[in-house]
Amino acid sequence: MKKKLAILCYSNGTLEIYYEQIQSLFQDNLIIEKYCLENGPIQKEIVADLILLPSFDAFEKVRHLIKKVDKVLFADRTISKGGLDKMMDIEEGTEAFFLDESMEMSKQMVSTLYEIGVDHMNLTPICPTTEGNFKEKMIIVLGKSSNIPLNTTNILNIGNSLLDINTIIEIGVRLDYLHILNRQNIGKSYKEIATANYGLSRILGMTNMSEGQLDILLQVIDDGLIGIDAKGSIFLYNENAGEIVGYTREDVVHRDGILLFPQIPFKDVLENLRSVREILIKINGVDLIVSVDPIVHSERLYGAVAIIRRFSDAESQQHRLRAKVIGKGHKAKYNFGDIVGESENIKKTIEIAKRMARSNSSILITGESGTGKELFAQAIHNNSKRRNFQFVAINCGALPESLLESELFGYEEGAFTGARKGGKSGLFELAHNGTLFLDEIGEMPPSLQMRLLRVLQEREVMRLGGDSIINVDIRIIAATNKNLKEMMATGGFREDLYYRLNVLPLKIPPLRSRKKDIETLVDRFRAEFRGSFVLSQMAKDVLLSYNWKGNVRELKNYIEYLVSLEIKEVDVKDLPFEIFEEVEGNILLEEDAEAIVSSEERNIYNDLKEDAGKDLPKYIFILEELEKAFLSNKRLGRRSLLTIAKQKKMFLGEQEIRNMLLYLESKGMVEVYKGRGGTLITDRGKNILNYYAKSKGFNG
């Protein structure tokens, strides 16, 4: 005779979901009656072999209609994996309300969500009778709800609730229909349902469970399970194990697991009573990851169980986890089209970077602060074969050594005081298959330089406090505004690491060597900050003559400042540069705009004119040649200057050049390096040279 199940719910939508779930598993073997509180109070007596209720609150409403309360079963609920994915995509630390049909049900579901892994956000349970202002926070609902508060618009629907596997098994046990469930592919039915993560020892420790109950529960576990008793005989073999290794349950159960699967270290685990964690094996040509644990209870050995999964599945799972991390910020936003400029310097640099993107070798990007080194790094990643994977960036100079180490390499639980429960993945792991950008690499402490070198050599890392090796496939792009060769000479940077990183060197030109791009950049930043000002010709000329020590970043900051002034035309007096603080009283002719210098530099120029006398053109010649060399990233020595002078028929001797360089150095216009280091023009020297060229003898 068929058994009867009564289902009672608050809403018709939920009632239909539960009905379809149960009907698909028990089919025609079960009579199901449906009751819904949404349609009004239940009037008739509820008579059934089992009554499924959503909560104790619901039970109180129909208690007078139930003669035998021992026939009542309260439902355990969960959500779909799709709904779980929606919640996992929510930003960490988000405060949200969780709305369910009653406060009791809401609290139960919030507890379930925390249990299945939603521990990155704070959920406050509410129900239709909860009062309050919900406008500022997100409200998470199950399916279509007619109870959403009117004063909110931030709503996330995670789909209908579903009956958990434990409730399905309990229905089978209470109705003596467990044999029907055993004939169903319950694992397939529950493939898309998020189930609480039962530990294997917990499942196997349920000694009061029947063999049928255990088989059903083990079907919904994603991994393959192979269990042997103390003598090696296989007693446990779930459906996923069969799909992975290719044998049916009938092929393996009661056979010697140690002989049948010699690749799995069953024998070592039984003899040593020690677990083996995540080793790579091959069975029937398939790469597998296997972990084996002994089954010990009351100091007695009962056997061992192996958890197996395909290596490709493990890789896919890791990629999905990393994809979630990408959504939290580890993603390259910029491409080569975002790099503004038409000057030959920047176009040549972009072309070199594009060629580097096709390679898989390490890149060392050098350039002054503010030139856009990370912008180039992101563009390279987005044009590489790794563009579909994560771009992880860290500033090596922004963190203390201990924190930088834990961020890069990760740590195991208990590795140090304050370590997060469960440990933490390091950035090397997060960047697997993608790109790791190490900004300000020159700031990395020597001890970490050695560990980084090992990662580059071996392509493997070990977490702090850990004992297992983690293989990583990453591309390193490093950047610095320091001279690493000089640091190598003083022991501040490892020579072997430098040559590991500097496989593909990329130098970003400073803004002063690509002044053709300044007006284009001004237009870009003005549009970005939604400004509408125009520059006077004098203001334009000053922008073009300024040295831009902070490069593109400095220019962007100044444009943001000018937009904030909310004026229609920006003139010289509106510019924020310190260079104009001491010249406010001067009357500036438009043709003299680029000749503006500080009063100190003007005095130095006047001294030069007086001291040089008729030889002033010779000093100007030296400054001009040094500036040309600077723009070509070169330094000139005395002999080089002598050769150029002869070519241009400038009558200069080597000793005369030496004396002139010493004078210019004493005035801060050049820097003379010892040996064959050559001479470099300074910003002051360039300002004074520019002043001379534009003023043509202007005396201040």
Automatic annotation (TrEMBL):
One of its GO terms (biological process) is regulation of DNA-templated transcription. Residues 339-564 form the Sigma-54 factor interaction domain. This is Putative sigma54 specific transcriptional regulator. It comes from the Bacteria. Residues 210-259 form the PAS domain. PROSITE patterns: PAS, SIGMA54_INTERACT_1, SIGMA54_INTERACT_2, SIGMA54_INTERACT_4. CDD domains: AAA, PAS. Keywords: ATP-binding, Nucleotide-binding. One of its GO terms (molecular function) is ATP binding. The keyword Nucleotide-binding applies. PANTHER family: C4-DICARBOXYLATE TRANSPORT TRANSCRIPTIONAL REGULATORY PROTEIN DCTD, TRANSCRIPTIONAL REGULATORY PROTEIN. The keyword ATP-binding applies.
